[in-house]
Amino acid sequence: IRSDVSESVQMIAEILPEMLANTRDPKSRAQMRKPDEVRAAMCLEGADELYKELSAASRLFAVETEELTNDLRVRVTIVVRSLQNAAYHMGKIEEGCIKE
């Protein structure tokens, strides 16, 4: 998961400013990932496995019944879902860069 998200962030940080400034070097196109790699990263392939690991580990966590936001399992689920959303949106940005 970390490598998928990191690759997208790095590519966007390098290529997008050049594109917006219209100073893109032709060599930068070689740095871009292939569309199928971008689509795979958008799905965050390791998320399902991470959910399984967290589910197994979370059995040891105390169950919070008074306040949902204090339940560690809920917080971890929100973090993983946020990573999935971030990967999806960065992938969309990468797709836009590839199309340019």
Overview of the structural elements:
The chain is built from five helices and no strands. It is mainly α and 100 residues long. The chain is elongated, with a radius of gyration of 18 Å. The two termini are 27 Å apart. The model has no long low-confidence stretch (mean pLDDT 78).
List the helices and strands and how they pair.
Layout lengths: L1 H20 L6 H4 L3 H8 L4 H12 L13 H28 L1
Molecular shape:
elongated
Q: Helix and strand string, N-terminal first?
A: HHHHH
Q: Hey, roughly how much beta strand do the residues contain?
A: under 5%
Low-confidence stretches: none
Estimate the helix proportion, in percent. Answer: over 70%
Q: Helix/strand/pairing class, anyone? A: mainly alpha
Question: Based on DSSP secondary structure assignment, what is the total number of beta strands?
Answer: 0
Radius of gyration: 18 Å
Main pleated-sheet profile: none
Terminus-to-terminus distance? 27 Å
The mean pLDDT is 78
- Helix segment tally: 5
Quick description:
The protein contains five helices and no strands. With 100 residues, it is mainly α. It is elongated.
Supply database-style keywords:
100 residues; mainly alpha; 5 helices
